[in-house]
Amino acid sequence: MGKMPVSDNTIESRLALVQRKIDALRRTREEGKGVRLIVVSKNRPVDLIQQVYRAGVRQLGENRIQELSEKAPRLESDIEWHFIGHLQRNKVRDAVRWATWIHSVDSLRLLRLIERIAGEENRTPGILLQVNITGESSKSGIAPAECVKLAAAAGKCRNLQCLGLMTMAPFEADESRQREVFAGLRKLRDQVEHSLKIDLPELSMGMSNDYQMAIREGATMVRIGSAIFKA
Ligand SMILES: *Cc1c(COP(=O)(O)O)cnc(C)c1O
Known about the structure:
Layout: H1 11-27, E1 36-40, H2 46-54, E2 59-62, H3 65-71, E3 80-83, H4 92-98, E4 101-105, H5 108-121, E5 126-130, H6 147-155, E6 161-166, H7 175-196, E7 202-204, H8 211-216, E8 221-224, H9 226-229
Parallel strand pairs: 1-2, 1-8, 2-3, 3-4, 4-5, 5-6, 6-7
């Protein structure tokens, strides 16, 4: 038997458990791509974030710009911040200042604004196009049919790098529905790559309740909060 943690009730042990599950699933995949764990720190105080930082975490996700721009300056500068929430136009400048990645680009207007402001701020964020695979009206994201057009526009931008797609599965989805959503995003990515002759290496999909299925279906970034922070 391998070494087991004494308690499974600390942030460190929950983080280690998630990391072990990610590593095990990654090894079962055919393609060699890695899986990046983004620890979602929204609603968590700075001292808890410092705890995961000390445990080695450098990729953190926030979904509100106000919260991101309050926390980021109080934390170490080698953290890569991922903005994963809906991005309002009047918050783009702070997003570009603080976030290395923006996962939630869902319109041409927003794309163009990020391109302009990133130029002004002398930054080059990595961006992902958020897709609403299921068509649920409660979810943000573009329809799959709009993806080629938005990716083509993103490909012409100089001040951002469009590196992939992001989606969320419905919260109550059973495993077959999760699989359908995540495989749907992967197939859409493959189609967009093929029709535009571009590379979109990143698939940001999977949260605490469904990341294992997301990795089976090709996720390269999983966004996990409660499985790590909540006892
Ligand atoms: C909150 C959030 C997550 C993390 O959710 P958990 O269930 O806490 O793991 C992932 N992605 C997005 C877009 C979120 O808003």
